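Tokens as discussed.
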């Protein structure tokens, strides 16, 4: 009897012990060693293991467990665009040279008269810096030739008496069809410091080489005479705020692929957007624009040339906009005397006012009114070896624009050029081939032009 009672207590004790141990093992097995991972869905992606307390102590864990985001091949980010620009111009003066330039060369890209003319064929290949990029603009046609003619060889004022380095002439042809070519890098500094190295268009003034980027087809006197076309060097840009950006420039000089002296030229640009629709840009360029004479080892023309340019653009509505551009240039005169034999500083200044009214997406009207004065004749007369003559130029331009399609733009433009001197060629012509004197020039000219531009 006693034996049976002891067996029952033993069985009960063992049963209770088994239940307790089983319950403990079950509880231990169900307790997780890490927090449960959320489901892998688009709304709730899987958390990397480095977010757990243990793995967080291992710095390389997250880099090892989460593969870096793959980038697209660099060539897929390259953009290709272009422009084909042609025109027909008619000059009511009927100049014998069949050009609109006259004495001053004030008309640049719409030079030819009474003939159909291809102005520019351009191909642009570029990649936005991320952080490295590039841009190459290839240009062909009379516009590219005219810009190349402004390559500063240092003989603008001294003619045949100047000795020019052969590399300067060679560079003029080598780079003629490369309108722009530079490498870009956005440095990880603050909001991003962008640095460009190579050849680029000038930052001066609001008008551009491409006709489709301007409100009028022809360029103003300020664009043609007061500022350079291009530079070779380095520039840096930085957006200080959402409404204020600055650029600094360090270049060879005015229109220099190959430098003509041992000096460099500097420049700045400040762009401010104080109010919606209002943009104010202040530009400056300064430097020695003389040339290096290899026979003497000296730089001829060691005075600084300074030019300030201010342009203000106001977009009143989505149909109406206004723009004002003012330029002031200064260079001491040490090489060319005035008609009375004295020397005085060269100064040039000009103001151009623009408006654009676009009642529809296809139709726009753009008038332009301009005044330009060249004290001493450096910008308007020296190129024809007629220095020391102060000239004042005026022009009134009216442009009608009609877009046949998004990429095909046509413009009908009337322009009247005027001067206080007889600087525009008339139908009599000149036997010497260079319009000089009242016998073959007038103080005004009227032109009408049709331009066609296709972009892609």
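Sequence:
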């Amino acid at each position: 009897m006693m034996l049976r009672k002891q067996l029952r207590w033993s069985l009960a004790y063992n049963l209770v012990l088994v239940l307790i141990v089983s319950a403990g093992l079950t509880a231990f097995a169900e307790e997780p060693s890490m927090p449960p991972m959320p489901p892998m869905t688009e709304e709730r992606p899987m958390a990397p293991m480095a977010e757990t307390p243990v793995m967080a102590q291992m710095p390389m864990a997250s880099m090892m467990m989460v593969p870096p985001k793959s980038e697209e091949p660099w060539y897929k980010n390259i953009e290709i665009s272009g422009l084909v620009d042609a025109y027909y111009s008619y000059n009511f003066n009927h100049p014998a040279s069949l050009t609109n330039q006259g004495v001053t060369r004030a008309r640049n890209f719409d030079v030819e008269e009474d003939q159909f003319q291809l102005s520019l064929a351009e191909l642009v290949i570029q990649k936005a810096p991320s952080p490295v990029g590039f841009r190459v603009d290839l240009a062909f046609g009379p516009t590219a030739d005219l810009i190349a003619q402004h390559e500063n060889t240092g003989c603008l004022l001294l003619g045949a008496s100047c000795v020019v380095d052969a590399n300067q002439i060679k560079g003029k042809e080598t780079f003629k069809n490369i309108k722009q070519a530079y490498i870009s890098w956005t440095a990880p500094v603050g909001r991003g410091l962008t640095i460009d190295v190579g050849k680029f268009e000038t930052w001066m003034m609001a008008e551009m080489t491409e006709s489709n980027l301007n409100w009028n087809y022809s360029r103003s006197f300020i664009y043609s005479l007061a500022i350079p076309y291009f530079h070779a060097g380095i520039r840096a840009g930085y957006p200080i705020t959402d409404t204020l950006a600055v650029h600094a420039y360090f270049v060879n000089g005015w229109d220099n692929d190959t430098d003509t002296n041992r000096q460099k030229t500097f420049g700045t640009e400040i762009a401010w957007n104080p109010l919606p629709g209002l943009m104010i840009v202040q530009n400056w360029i300064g430097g020695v624009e003389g040339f290096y004479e290899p026979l003497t080892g000296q730089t001829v023309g060691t005075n600084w040339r300074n030019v300030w340019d201010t342009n203000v653009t106001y977009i009143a509505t989505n149909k109406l906009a206004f723009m004002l551009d003012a330029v002031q240039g200064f260079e001491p005169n040490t090489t060319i005397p005035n008609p009375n034999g004295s020397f005085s500083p060269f100064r040039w200044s000009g103001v151009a006012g623009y408006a654009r009214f676009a009642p529809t997406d296809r139709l726009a009207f753009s008038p332009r009114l301009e005044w330009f004065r060249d004290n001493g004749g450096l910008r308007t007369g020296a190129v024809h070896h007629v220095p020391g003559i102060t000239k004042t130029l005026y022009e009134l331009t009216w442009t009608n624009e009609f877009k046949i399609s998004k990429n095909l733009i046509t413009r009908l433009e009337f322009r009247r050029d005027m001067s206080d001197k007889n600087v525009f060629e008339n139908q009599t012509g000149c036997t010497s081939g260079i319009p000089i004197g009242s016998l073959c020039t007038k103080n005004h000219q009227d032109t009408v032009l049709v331009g066609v531009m296709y972009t892609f």
